[in-house]
Amino acid sequence: MSMNSADLINNAEKEWVWNETPLLKVRGLSKQFGAGCIHCKQPTSDEQEGSRCQYCGSIWACRNLSFDLYPGEILGVVGESGSGKSTLVKCLYFDEETTVGEMSISSYEDKTSNLFEKSAQQKRYIRNHVMGMVYQNPLLGLRMPISSSGNIAEKLFAADHYHVGSIRQRAADLLQKVEIPLARMDEPPKNFSGGMQQRVQISKALANNPPLLLLDEVTTGLDLSVQAKVLDLIRNIQRELRVAMIVVSHDLGVIRMLADRTMVLRQGLIVEQGLTDQILEDPRHPYTQLLVHSLL
Amino acid sequence: MSLILKAIGLGKWFELSLSHQMKVSPFQNLSFEVAKGEFMGIAGPSGIGKSSILKCLYRTYLPSSGEIWFDSSLYGTIDLAKATERQITHLRIREIGYVSQFFKAIPRISALDVVADRLLPLGYSLNQARDRAMQLLERLNIPEQLWQAYPATFSGGEQQRVNLARAFAVRPRLLILDEPTASLDNDTKLNVLALMKEMKQDGTTMIGVFHDWDVMGKVADQILDLRKLQASKEQEQMAGM
Ligand SMILES: Nc1ncnc2c1ncn2[C@@H]1O[C@H](COP(=O)(O)OP(=O)(O)OP(=O)(O)O)[C@@H](O)[C@H]1O
Ligand SMILES: [Mg+2]
Ligand SMILES: [Zn+2]
Protein backbone atom coordinates (compact mmCIF):
# COMPACT_ATOMS: atom_id res chain seq x y z
CA MET A 1 0.00 0.00 0.00
CA SER A 2 1.46 3.28 -1.05
CA MET A 3 0.91 6.75 0.27
CA ASN A 4 -1.62 6.67 -2.55
CA SER A 5 -0.39 9.68 -4.32
CA ALA A 6 -2.86 9.62 -7.16
CA ASP A 7 0.00 9.25 -9.59
CA LEU A 8 0.63 5.89 -8.04
CA ILE A 9 -2.78 4.43 -8.77
CA ASN A 10 -1.79 1.08 -10.14
CA ASN A 11 -3.22 -0.62 -13.14
CA ALA A 12 -5.00 -3.28 -11.14
CA GLU A 13 -6.87 -0.61 -9.24
CA LYS A 14 -7.70 1.23 -12.42
CA GLU A 15 -9.00 -1.91 -14.01
CA TRP A 16 -11.08 -2.66 -10.95
CA VAL A 17 -12.73 0.76 -11.06
CA TRP A 18 -13.26 0.59 -14.80
CA ASN A 19 -14.86 -2.83 -14.65
CA GLU A 20 -17.01 -2.08 -11.64
CA THR A 21 -20.64 -2.99 -12.21
CA PRO A 22 -23.67 -2.10 -10.11
CA LEU A 23 -24.71 -4.72 -7.59
CA LEU A 24 -28.35 -3.80 -8.08
CA LYS A 25 -29.91 -2.39 -11.21
CA VAL A 26 -33.51 -1.21 -11.22
CA ARG A 27 -35.20 0.04 -14.37
CA GLY A 28 -38.66 1.52 -14.79
CA LEU A 29 -40.07 0.09 -11.59
CA SER A 30 -43.77 0.96 -11.17
CA LYS A 31 -46.28 -0.32 -8.68
CA GLN A 32 -50.01 0.20 -8.84
CA PHE A 33 -52.40 -0.44 -5.98
CA GLY A 34 -55.97 -0.99 -7.11
CA ALA A 35 -57.57 -2.53 -10.17
CA GLY A 36 -56.74 0.34 -12.52
CA CYS A 37 -58.92 1.53 -15.37
CA ILE A 38 -58.55 2.81 -18.89
CA HIS A 39 -57.42 6.19 -17.57
CA CYS A 40 -54.55 4.89 -15.47
CA LYS A 41 -53.10 2.01 -17.50
CA GLN A 42 -49.71 3.71 -17.57
CA PRO A 43 -48.01 5.64 -14.77
CA THR A 44 -47.21 9.15 -15.93
CA SER A 45 -43.91 10.77 -15.07
CA ASP A 46 -45.62 14.14 -14.89
CA GLU A 47 -45.12 15.75 -11.51
CA GLN A 48 -48.22 17.87 -11.92
CA GLU A 49 -50.32 14.76 -12.12
CA GLY A 50 -50.93 13.11 -8.76
CA SER A 51 -50.42 9.41 -8.23
CA ARG A 52 -54.12 8.67 -7.58
CA CYS A 53 -56.45 8.06 -10.53
CA GLN A 54 -59.39 10.40 -10.31
CA TYR A 55 -61.69 7.89 -12.04
CA CYS A 56 -61.04 4.63 -10.21
CA GLY A 57 -59.02 5.67 -7.18
CA SER A 58 -56.07 3.39 -7.95
CA ILE A 59 -52.65 4.61 -6.94
CA TRP A 60 -49.33 4.40 -8.73
CA ALA A 61 -47.30 4.22 -5.51
CA CYS A 62 -44.02 4.02 -7.48
CA ARG A 63 -43.70 5.51 -10.93
CA ASN A 64 -40.97 4.59 -13.32
CA LEU A 65 -38.10 4.36 -10.81
CA SER A 66 -34.65 3.68 -12.24
CA PHE A 67 -31.42 3.59 -10.29
CA ASP A 68 -28.21 1.65 -9.61
CA LEU A 69 -26.58 0.60 -6.38
CA TYR A 70 -22.88 -0.23 -6.30
CA PRO A 71 -21.20 -2.76 -4.01
CA GLY A 72 -20.63 -1.31 -0.56
CA GLU A 73 -22.57 1.85 -1.29
CA ILE A 74 -25.34 3.34 0.85
CA LEU A 75 -28.24 4.84 -1.10
CA GLY A 76 -30.61 7.00 0.91
CA VAL A 77 -34.28 7.27 -0.04
CA VAL A 78 -36.06 10.23 1.45
CA GLY A 79 -39.53 11.66 0.99
CA GLU A 80 -42.74 12.57 2.73
CA SER A 81 -45.24 10.09 4.05
CA GLY A 82 -46.97 8.25 1.21
CA SER A 83 -44.27 9.05 -1.35
CA GLY A 84 -43.70 5.37 -2.08
CA LYS A 85 -40.51 4.67 -0.13
CA SER A 86 -41.75 1.55 1.64
CA THR A 87 -43.49 0.29 -1.47
CA LEU A 88 -40.18 0.53 -3.34
CA VAL A 89 -38.21 -1.59 -0.88
CA LYS A 90 -41.09 -4.04 -0.52
CA CYS A 91 -41.07 -4.50 -4.29
CA LEU A 92 -37.31 -5.09 -4.23
CA TYR A 93 -37.73 -7.67 -1.47
CA PHE A 94 -40.68 -9.30 -3.29
CA ASP A 95 -43.02 -8.48 -0.41
CA GLU A 96 -45.15 -6.71 -2.99
CA GLU A 97 -45.62 -7.74 -6.57
CA THR A 98 -44.08 -5.17 -8.92
CA THR A 99 -46.54 -4.06 -11.61
CA VAL A 100 -43.91 -3.25 -14.27
CA GLY A 101 -40.16 -2.92 -14.27
CA GLU A 102 -36.88 -4.76 -14.15
CA MET A 103 -34.40 -5.63 -11.44
CA SER A 104 -31.11 -7.47 -11.67
CA ILE A 105 -28.49 -8.30 -9.06
CA SER A 106 -24.93 -8.92 -10.20
CA SER A 107 -24.05 -11.38 -7.45
CA TYR A 108 -27.00 -13.59 -8.32
CA GLU A 109 -26.08 -16.45 -10.59
CA ASP A 110 -27.43 -15.15 -13.88
CA LYS A 111 -26.46 -11.50 -13.32
CA THR A 112 -28.71 -9.77 -15.83
CA SER A 113 -32.09 -11.48 -16.00
CA ASN A 114 -35.17 -9.67 -14.68
CA LEU A 115 -35.70 -10.96 -11.15
CA PHE A 116 -39.27 -9.67 -11.02
CA GLU A 117 -40.14 -12.35 -13.59
CA LYS A 118 -38.76 -15.27 -11.59
CA SER A 119 -40.94 -17.97 -10.07
CA ALA A 120 -42.08 -17.65 -6.46
CA GLN A 121 -39.58 -20.32 -5.48
CA GLN A 122 -36.66 -18.53 -7.15
CA LYS A 123 -37.71 -15.26 -5.54
CA ARG A 124 -37.67 -16.92 -2.15
CA TYR A 125 -34.19 -18.25 -2.90
CA ILE A 126 -32.95 -14.80 -3.90
CA ARG A 127 -34.29 -13.08 -0.84
CA ASN A 128 -32.92 -15.76 1.46
CA HIS A 129 -29.49 -15.79 -0.11
CA VAL A 130 -28.62 -12.32 -1.36
CA MET A 131 -30.86 -9.93 0.56
CA GLY A 132 -31.56 -8.82 4.10
CA MET A 133 -34.49 -6.66 5.16
CA VAL A 134 -35.08 -4.62 8.28
CA TYR A 135 -38.60 -3.29 8.74
CA GLN A 136 -39.72 -0.28 10.73
CA ASN A 137 -41.96 -2.59 12.67
CA PRO A 138 -39.94 -5.42 14.26
CA LEU A 139 -43.09 -7.54 14.26
CA LEU A 140 -42.65 -7.94 10.51
CA GLY A 141 -39.04 -9.05 10.64
CA LEU A 142 -38.96 -11.11 13.83
CA ARG A 143 -40.94 -13.95 15.25
CA MET A 144 -41.63 -12.50 18.65
CA PRO A 145 -42.35 -15.62 20.71
CA ILE A 146 -39.31 -17.66 19.67
CA SER A 147 -35.81 -17.01 21.03
CA SER A 148 -33.52 -14.41 19.46
CA SER A 149 -30.99 -17.11 18.61
CA GLY A 150 -33.86 -19.12 17.10
CA ASN A 151 -34.79 -16.16 14.92
CA ILE A 152 -31.28 -16.07 13.53
CA ALA A 153 -31.19 -19.85 13.10
CA GLU A 154 -34.37 -19.57 11.08
CA LYS A 155 -32.75 -17.16 8.65
CA LEU A 156 -29.66 -19.38 8.41
CA PHE A 157 -31.76 -22.49 7.69
CA ALA A 158 -33.53 -20.55 4.97
CA ALA A 159 -30.13 -19.80 3.45
CA ASP A 160 -29.18 -23.49 3.56
CA HIS A 161 -26.90 -23.52 6.59
CA TYR A 162 -27.65 -26.66 8.54
CA HIS A 163 -24.70 -27.27 10.87
CA VAL A 164 -26.29 -26.75 14.27
CA GLY A 165 -23.08 -26.07 16.17
CA SER A 166 -21.89 -23.38 13.80
CA ILE A 167 -25.39 -21.89 13.68
CA ARG A 168 -25.33 -21.36 17.41
CA GLN A 169 -21.88 -19.81 17.19
CA ARG A 170 -22.96 -17.53 14.36
CA ALA A 171 -26.05 -16.44 16.32
CA ALA A 172 -23.87 -15.62 19.30
CA ASP A 173 -21.43 -13.64 17.13
CA LEU A 174 -24.19 -11.71 15.41
CA LEU A 175 -26.02 -10.85 18.61
CA GLN A 176 -22.74 -9.77 20.15
CA LYS A 177 -22.12 -7.49 17.19
CA VAL A 178 -25.41 -5.73 17.88
CA GLU A 179 -24.65 -5.66 21.61
CA ILE A 180 -27.28 -8.07 22.87
CA PRO A 181 -25.77 -9.69 25.99
CA LEU A 182 -24.94 -13.34 25.39
CA ALA A 183 -26.87 -14.31 28.48
CA ARG A 184 -30.03 -13.12 26.76
CA MET A 185 -29.56 -14.76 23.36
CA ASP A 186 -32.16 -17.39 24.07
CA GLU A 187 -34.79 -14.93 25.22
CA PRO A 188 -37.59 -14.10 22.79
CA PRO A 189 -37.56 -10.58 21.31
CA LYS A 190 -40.98 -9.89 22.81
CA ASN A 191 -39.14 -9.48 26.14
CA PHE A 192 -36.94 -6.75 24.69
CA SER A 193 -37.25 -2.97 24.33
CA GLY A 194 -37.95 -1.46 20.90
CA GLY A 195 -34.31 -0.54 20.34
CA MET A 196 -33.12 -4.02 21.28
CA GLN A 197 -35.73 -5.60 19.02
CA GLN A 198 -34.48 -3.46 16.18
CA ARG A 199 -30.93 -4.61 16.85
CA VAL A 200 -32.00 -8.26 16.86
CA GLN A 201 -33.80 -7.64 13.59
CA ILE A 202 -30.64 -6.18 12.08
CA SER A 203 -28.56 -9.16 13.21
CA LYS A 204 -31.14 -11.52 11.71
CA ALA A 205 -31.07 -9.65 8.42
CA LEU A 206 -27.28 -9.97 8.34
CA ALA A 207 -27.22 -13.66 9.22
CA ASN A 208 -26.87 -14.90 5.62
CA ASN A 209 -24.10 -12.36 4.89
CA PRO A 210 -26.16 -10.63 2.20
CA PRO A 211 -24.43 -8.25 -0.22
CA LEU A 212 -27.63 -6.17 -0.13
CA LEU A 213 -29.43 -4.88 2.93
CA LEU A 214 -32.72 -2.99 2.83
CA LEU A 215 -33.64 -0.81 5.80
CA ASP A 216 -37.05 0.85 6.05
CA GLU A 217 -37.36 3.59 8.69
CA VAL A 218 -35.46 1.51 11.19
CA THR A 219 -35.03 4.30 13.72
CA THR A 220 -38.47 5.89 13.45
CA GLY A 221 -40.34 5.84 16.70
CA LEU A 222 -37.30 5.12 18.87
CA ASP A 223 -36.02 7.45 21.60
CA LEU A 224 -33.23 9.74 20.41
CA SER A 225 -30.50 8.00 22.37
CA VAL A 226 -31.69 4.59 21.14
CA GLN A 227 -31.87 5.93 17.59
CA ALA A 228 -28.25 7.03 17.89
CA LYS A 229 -27.21 3.55 18.93
CA VAL A 230 -28.99 1.88 16.03
CA LEU A 231 -27.53 4.39 13.55
CA ASP A 232 -24.03 3.84 14.90
CA LEU A 233 -24.56 0.12 14.54
CA ILE A 234 -25.59 0.48 10.91
CA ARG A 235 -22.61 2.67 10.20
CA ASN A 236 -20.21 0.21 11.82
CA ILE A 237 -21.70 -2.69 9.91
CA GLN A 238 -21.15 -0.85 6.68
CA ARG A 239 -17.58 -0.03 7.63
CA GLU A 240 -16.76 -3.58 8.61
CA LEU A 241 -18.74 -5.68 6.20
CA ARG A 242 -19.03 -3.30 3.23
CA VAL A 243 -22.64 -4.35 2.65
CA ALA A 244 -24.52 -2.26 0.11
CA MET A 245 -27.60 -0.71 1.66
CA ILE A 246 -30.75 1.10 0.74
CA VAL A 247 -31.71 3.25 3.70
CA VAL A 248 -35.26 4.57 3.64
CA SER A 249 -36.12 7.44 5.93
CA HIS A 250 -38.35 10.47 6.03
CA ASP A 251 -35.62 12.03 8.20
CA LEU A 252 -32.93 13.84 6.25
CA GLY A 253 -30.74 13.77 9.37
CA VAL A 254 -30.52 9.98 9.16
CA ILE A 255 -29.76 10.17 5.45
CA ARG A 256 -27.07 12.80 6.02
CA MET A 257 -25.32 10.57 8.49
CA LEU A 258 -25.43 7.36 6.46
CA ALA A 259 -25.93 7.80 2.74
CA ASP A 260 -23.33 8.33 0.00
CA ARG A 261 -26.01 9.08 -2.52
CA THR A 262 -29.62 10.15 -2.07
CA MET A 263 -32.84 9.85 -4.00
CA VAL A 264 -35.79 12.13 -3.22
CA LEU A 265 -39.23 10.61 -3.81
CA ARG A 266 -42.49 12.46 -4.10
CA GLN A 267 -45.81 10.98 -5.11
CA GLY A 268 -44.05 7.90 -6.38
CA LEU A 269 -41.59 9.80 -8.58
CA ILE A 270 -37.86 10.46 -8.18
CA VAL A 271 -37.84 14.24 -8.20
CA GLU A 272 -34.12 14.58 -7.54
CA GLN A 273 -31.08 12.40 -6.98
CA GLY A 274 -27.44 13.10 -6.36
CA LEU A 275 -24.46 12.84 -4.04
CA THR A 276 -25.75 13.37 -0.52
CA ASP A 277 -23.65 16.47 0.12
CA GLN A 278 -24.94 17.95 -3.14
CA ILE A 279 -28.57 17.19 -2.27
CA LEU A 280 -28.04 18.89 1.09
CA GLU A 281 -26.08 21.93 -0.06
CA ASP A 282 -27.44 22.45 -3.57
CA PRO A 283 -30.98 21.08 -3.64
CA ARG A 284 -32.63 22.01 -6.92
CA HIS A 285 -36.17 20.71 -6.73
CA PRO A 286 -38.49 22.98 -4.70
CA TYR A 287 -39.60 19.99 -2.65
CA THR A 288 -36.00 19.05 -1.78
CA GLN A 289 -35.32 22.69 -0.87
CA LEU A 290 -38.24 22.57 1.52
CA LEU A 291 -36.97 19.33 3.08
CA VAL A 292 -33.45 20.67 3.49
CA HIS A 293 -34.59 23.92 5.00
CA SER A 294 -36.81 22.13 7.47
CA LEU A 295 -33.71 20.28 8.64
CA LEU A 296 -31.66 23.37 9.42
CA MET B 1 4.01 22.64 -18.67
CA SER B 2 1.09 20.26 -18.61
CA LEU B 3 -2.26 21.33 -17.26
CA ILE B 4 -4.15 19.36 -14.66
CA LEU B 5 -7.30 21.46 -14.57
CA LYS B 6 -8.96 23.77 -17.04
CA ALA B 7 -12.25 25.52 -16.33
CA ILE B 8 -14.10 27.00 -19.28
CA GLY B 9 -17.05 29.37 -18.94
CA LEU B 10 -17.95 28.04 -15.54
CA GLY B 11 -21.10 29.47 -13.98
CA LYS B 12 -23.46 28.73 -11.13
CA TRP B 13 -26.89 29.97 -10.24
CA PHE B 14 -29.33 28.88 -7.62
CA GLU B 15 -33.05 28.95 -8.13
CA LEU B 16 -34.66 29.12 -4.75
CA SER B 17 -38.36 28.66 -4.39
CA LEU B 18 -39.08 28.91 -0.70
CA SER B 19 -41.01 31.94 0.46
CA HIS B 20 -40.72 33.43 -3.01
CA GLN B 21 -38.89 32.66 -6.26
CA MET B 22 -35.32 33.88 -6.24
CA LYS B 23 -32.36 33.55 -8.57
CA VAL B 24 -28.88 33.98 -7.16
CA SER B 25 -25.64 33.72 -9.07
CA PRO B 26 -22.32 33.65 -7.22
CA PHE B 27 -20.24 33.65 -10.43
CA GLN B 28 -20.60 33.47 -14.20
CA ASN B 29 -18.45 32.68 -17.18
CA LEU B 30 -15.28 31.94 -15.26
CA SER B 31 -12.27 30.42 -16.98
CA PHE B 32 -8.90 29.47 -15.54
CA GLU B 33 -6.10 26.96 -15.89
CA VAL B 34 -3.94 25.20 -13.34
CA ALA B 35 -0.65 23.56 -14.22
CA LYS B 36 0.29 20.23 -12.74
CA GLY B 37 1.95 20.58 -9.33
CA GLU B 38 1.06 24.23 -9.07
CA PHE B 39 -0.65 26.03 -6.21
CA MET B 40 -3.40 28.39 -7.32
CA GLY B 41 -4.79 30.84 -4.79
CA ILE B 42 -8.21 32.41 -5.22
CA ALA B 43 -8.63 35.91 -3.86
CA GLY B 44 -11.50 38.32 -3.59
CA PRO B 45 -13.71 40.01 -1.03
CA SER B 46 -16.14 38.10 1.15
CA GLY B 47 -19.29 37.01 -0.66
CA ILE B 48 -17.83 37.17 -4.16
CA GLY B 49 -18.22 33.38 -4.61
CA LYS B 50 -14.86 31.85 -3.70
CA SER B 51 -16.32 28.91 -1.76
CA SER B 52 -18.91 28.35 -4.48
CA ILE B 53 -16.18 27.89 -7.06
CA LEU B 54 -14.43 25.33 -4.89
CA LYS B 55 -17.69 23.51 -4.24
CA CYS B 56 -18.36 23.31 -7.98
CA LEU B 57 -14.92 21.74 -8.50
CA TYR B 58 -15.69 19.16 -5.80
CA ARG B 59 -19.26 18.76 -7.12
CA THR B 60 -20.92 19.60 -3.82
CA TYR B 61 -22.54 22.17 -6.09
CA LEU B 62 -23.62 21.10 -9.53
CA PRO B 63 -22.21 23.63 -12.02
CA SER B 64 -24.98 25.35 -14.02
CA SER B 65 -22.85 25.99 -17.08
CA GLY B 66 -19.37 25.45 -18.37
CA GLU B 67 -16.79 22.69 -18.28
CA ILE B 68 -14.17 21.59 -15.77
CA TRP B 69 -11.58 19.43 -17.49
CA PHE B 70 -9.50 17.41 -15.05
CA ASP B 71 -6.53 15.25 -15.95
CA SER B 72 -7.44 12.16 -13.92
CA SER B 73 -5.21 9.14 -13.51
CA LEU B 74 -8.27 6.89 -13.30
CA TYR B 75 -10.30 8.26 -16.17
CA GLY B 76 -7.93 10.32 -18.30
CA THR B 77 -9.29 13.75 -19.18
CA ILE B 78 -12.73 14.06 -17.64
CA ASP B 79 -15.25 16.90 -17.35
CA LEU B 80 -16.01 17.14 -13.64
CA ALA B 81 -19.15 19.11 -14.41
CA LYS B 82 -20.61 16.13 -16.26
CA ALA B 83 -18.97 13.14 -14.57
CA THR B 84 -21.34 10.58 -13.11
CA GLU B 85 -21.87 10.46 -9.37
CA ARG B 86 -20.04 7.15 -9.18
CA GLN B 87 -17.06 8.62 -11.03
CA ILE B 88 -17.04 11.55 -8.62
CA THR B 89 -17.17 9.14 -5.69
CA HIS B 90 -14.09 7.30 -6.96
CA LEU B 91 -12.30 10.57 -7.69
CA ARG B 92 -13.04 11.84 -4.19
CA ILE B 93 -11.60 8.68 -2.67
CA ARG B 94 -8.49 8.48 -4.83
CA GLU B 95 -7.71 11.78 -6.52
CA ILE B 96 -9.46 14.86 -5.20
CA GLY B 97 -9.35 16.02 -1.59
CA TYR B 98 -11.31 18.87 -0.07
CA VAL B 99 -10.93 20.85 3.14
CA SER B 100 -14.16 22.65 3.93
CA GLN B 101 -14.19 26.09 5.47
CA PHE B 102 -16.08 24.79 8.48
CA PHE B 103 -15.70 21.35 9.94
CA LYS B 104 -18.88 19.30 9.84
CA ALA B 105 -18.89 17.08 12.85
CA ILE B 106 -20.24 13.59 12.33
CA PRO B 107 -22.06 12.63 15.50
CA ARG B 108 -20.32 10.21 17.85
CA ILE B 109 -17.16 9.68 15.82
CA SER B 110 -13.87 10.30 17.60
CA ALA B 111 -11.30 12.69 16.18
CA LEU B 112 -9.05 9.71 15.51
CA ASP B 113 -11.71 7.94 13.46
CA VAL B 114 -12.69 11.07 11.55
CA VAL B 115 -9.16 10.97 10.17
CA ALA B 116 -8.91 7.17 9.91
CA ASP B 117 -12.21 6.99 8.00
CA ARG B 118 -10.62 8.89 5.13
CA LEU B 119 -8.27 5.95 4.60
CA LEU B 120 -10.61 2.97 4.90
CA PRO B 121 -12.04 3.17 1.36
CA LEU B 122 -8.44 3.05 0.10
CA GLY B 123 -7.99 -0.43 1.50
CA TYR B 124 -6.26 0.35 4.80
CA SER B 125 -7.21 -1.89 7.71
CA LEU B 126 -8.70 -0.08 10.69
CA ASN B 127 -5.44 -0.43 12.61
CA GLN B 128 -3.27 0.84 9.77
CA ALA B 129 -5.65 3.73 9.26
CA ARG B 130 -5.59 4.65 12.95
CA ASP B 131 -1.78 4.52 13.03
CA ARG B 132 -1.58 6.92 10.15
CA ALA B 133 -4.29 9.10 11.70
CA MET B 134 -2.27 9.42 14.92
CA GLN B 135 0.75 10.68 13.00
CA LEU B 136 -1.33 13.40 11.42
CA LEU B 137 -3.12 14.44 14.61
CA GLU B 138 0.29 14.77 16.18
CA ARG B 139 1.67 16.86 13.33
CA LEU B 140 -1.29 19.19 13.68
CA ASN B 141 -0.71 19.67 17.41
CA ILE B 142 -3.91 18.08 18.59
CA PRO B 143 -3.40 17.08 22.22
CA GLU B 144 -3.45 13.34 22.67
CA GLN B 145 -6.25 13.43 25.23
CA LEU B 146 -8.57 14.75 22.50
CA TRP B 147 -7.98 11.92 20.04
CA GLN B 148 -10.74 9.76 21.44
CA ALA B 149 -13.13 12.67 22.02
CA TYR B 150 -15.89 13.84 19.70
CA PRO B 151 -14.88 16.92 17.66
CA ALA B 152 -18.41 18.33 17.99
CA THR B 153 -17.28 19.71 21.35
CA PHE B 154 -13.92 21.08 20.10
CA SER B 155 -13.02 24.72 19.59
CA GLY B 156 -13.17 26.10 16.05
CA GLY B 157 -9.38 25.90 15.71
CA GLU B 158 -9.23 22.33 17.00
CA GLN B 159 -12.00 21.29 14.64
CA GLN B 160 -10.20 22.83 11.70
CA ARG B 161 -7.03 20.94 12.63
CA VAL B 162 -8.96 17.64 12.61
CA ASN B 163 -10.35 18.63 9.23
CA LEU B 164 -6.82 19.26 7.94
CA ALA B 165 -5.44 16.06 9.44
CA ARG B 166 -8.11 14.18 7.50
CA ALA B 167 -7.18 15.86 4.23
CA PHE B 168 -3.42 15.57 4.74
CA ALA B 169 -3.63 11.85 5.55
CA VAL B 170 -3.58 11.12 1.82
CA ARG B 171 -1.71 12.52 -1.15
CA PRO B 172 -4.43 13.28 -3.67
CA ARG B 173 -3.72 14.47 -7.18
CA LEU B 174 -5.70 17.63 -6.45
CA LEU B 175 -6.41 19.21 -3.08
CA ILE B 176 -9.04 21.91 -2.68
CA LEU B 177 -8.69 24.10 0.40
CA ASP B 178 -11.23 26.61 1.69
CA GLU B 179 -9.66 28.99 4.23
CA PRO B 180 -7.61 26.19 5.80
CA THR B 181 -5.63 28.44 8.11
CA ALA B 182 -8.35 30.86 9.15
CA SER B 183 -8.77 29.80 12.75
CA LEU B 184 -5.29 28.51 13.51
CA ASP B 185 -2.67 29.83 15.92
CA ASN B 186 0.70 30.76 14.52
CA ASP B 187 2.55 27.55 15.37
CA THR B 188 -0.09 25.36 13.79
CA LYS B 189 -0.23 27.64 10.80
CA LEU B 190 3.49 27.03 10.25
CA ASN B 191 2.97 23.26 10.49
CA VAL B 192 0.17 23.48 7.98
CA LEU B 193 2.33 25.47 5.60
CA ALA B 194 5.07 22.86 5.95
CA LEU B 195 2.61 20.05 5.26
CA MET B 196 1.30 21.81 2.19
CA LYS B 197 4.84 22.22 0.96
CA GLU B 198 5.49 18.51 1.46
CA MET B 199 2.37 17.62 -0.45
CA LYS B 200 3.36 19.90 -3.24
CA GLN B 201 6.76 18.25 -3.41
CA ASP B 202 4.99 14.90 -3.60
CA GLY B 203 3.18 16.19 -6.67
CA THR B 204 -0.20 17.30 -5.31
CA THR B 205 -1.76 20.24 -7.15
CA MET B 206 -3.61 22.64 -4.86
CA ILE B 207 -6.32 25.23 -5.21
CA GLY B 208 -6.98 27.30 -2.15
CA VAL B 209 -8.86 30.27 -0.80
CA PHE B 210 -7.13 32.33 1.89
CA HIS B 211 -8.29 35.51 3.48
CA ASP B 212 -4.73 36.05 4.59
CA TRP B 213 -2.64 37.51 1.73
CA ASP B 214 0.50 36.83 3.70
CA VAL B 215 -0.14 33.07 3.76
CA MET B 216 -1.31 33.09 0.17
CA GLY B 217 1.86 34.84 -0.94
CA LYS B 218 3.91 32.13 0.79
CA VAL B 219 2.26 29.23 -1.00
CA ALA B 220 0.65 30.35 -4.24
CA ASP B 221 2.33 30.20 -7.66
CA GLN B 222 -0.62 31.86 -9.32
CA ILE B 223 -3.43 33.99 -7.96
CA LEU B 224 -6.90 34.19 -9.43
CA ASP B 225 -8.12 37.61 -8.33
CA LEU B 226 -11.87 37.62 -8.70
CA ARG B 227 -12.18 41.35 -8.18
CA LYS B 228 -9.81 42.10 -11.05
CA LEU B 229 -11.62 39.59 -13.20
CA GLN B 230 -14.93 41.23 -12.45
CA ALA B 231 -13.56 44.67 -13.19
CA SER B 232 -12.08 43.65 -16.53
CA LYS B 233 -15.34 42.01 -17.51
CA GLU B 234 -17.22 45.18 -16.78
CA GLN B 235 -14.71 47.08 -18.88
CA GLU B 236 -15.16 44.67 -21.76
CA GLN B 237 -18.88 45.11 -21.55
CA MET B 238 -18.50 48.88 -21.62
CA ALA B 239 -16.17 48.66 -24.59
CA GLY B 240 -18.58 46.40 -26.41
CA MET B 241 -21.43 48.85 -26.07
N1 LIG C 1 -51.31 -2.36 0.29
C1 LIG C 1 -51.69 -1.16 -0.20
N2 LIG C 1 -52.91 -1.01 -0.77
C2 LIG C 1 -53.29 0.17 -1.27
N3 LIG C 1 -52.53 1.27 -1.27
C3 LIG C 1 -51.32 1.18 -0.70
C4 LIG C 1 -50.84 -0.02 -0.14
N4 LIG C 1 -49.60 0.18 0.36
C5 LIG C 1 -49.33 1.47 0.09
N5 LIG C 1 -50.35 2.08 -0.53
C6 LIG C 1 -50.37 3.47 -1.00
O1 LIG C 1 -49.24 3.71 -1.78
C7 LIG C 1 -48.70 4.99 -1.52
C8 LIG C 1 -47.26 4.86 -1.05
O2 LIG C 1 -47.23 4.25 0.22
P1 LIG C 1 -45.88 3.86 0.99
O3 LIG C 1 -46.25 3.07 2.20
O4 LIG C 1 -44.96 3.22 0.04
O5 LIG C 1 -45.33 5.28 1.40
P2 LIG C 1 -44.06 5.69 2.29
O6 LIG C 1 -43.27 6.62 1.45
O7 LIG C 1 -43.36 4.49 2.78
O8 LIG C 1 -44.73 6.51 3.48
P3 LIG C 1 -44.32 6.61 5.07
O9 LIG C 1 -43.26 7.64 5.15
O10 LIG C 1 -45.62 7.09 5.69
O11 LIG C 1 -43.93 5.25 5.52
C9 LIG C 1 -49.62 5.63 -0.49
O12 LIG C 1 -50.55 6.44 -1.16
C10 LIG C 1 -50.29 4.45 0.15
O13 LIG C 1 -51.58 4.81 0.65
MG1 LIG D 1 -42.97 3.73 4.82
ZN1 LIG E 1 -58.04 4.57 -13.00
UniProtKB/TrEMBL annotation, chain A:
UniProt protein name: Putative phosphonate transport system ATP-binding protein
Protein origin, superkingdom: Bacteria
Phylogenetic classification of the source organism: Bacteria, Bacillati, Bacillota, Bacilli, Bacillales
Signal peptide (UniProt feature, chain positions): none
GO terms, molecular function: ATP binding; ATP hydrolysis activity
Matching Gene3D superfamilies: P-loop containing nucleotide triphosphate hydrolases (3.40.50.300)
Family as reported in the entry's similarity comment: Belongs to the ABC transporter superfamily.
Domain ABC transporter: start-end pairs: 24-292
PANTHER family: PHOSPHONATES UTILIZATION ATP-BINDING PROTEIN PHNK-RELATED
UniProtKB/TrEMBL annotation, chain B:
SUPFAM superfamilies per record: P-loop containing nucleoside triphosphate hydrolases (SSF52540)
InterPro entries linked: AAA+_ATPase, ABC_transporter-like_ATP-bd, ABC_transporter-like_CS, P-loop_NTPase
Gene3D superfamilies per UniProt: P-loop containing nucleotide triphosphate hydrolases
GO MF terms, alphabetically ordered: ATP binding; ATP hydrolysis activity
Domain ABC transporter intervals: 5-241
The family this protein is said to belong to: Belongs to the ABC transporter superfamily.
Protein name from the UniProt record: Alpha-D-ribose 1-methylphosphonate 5-triphosphate synthase subunit PhnL
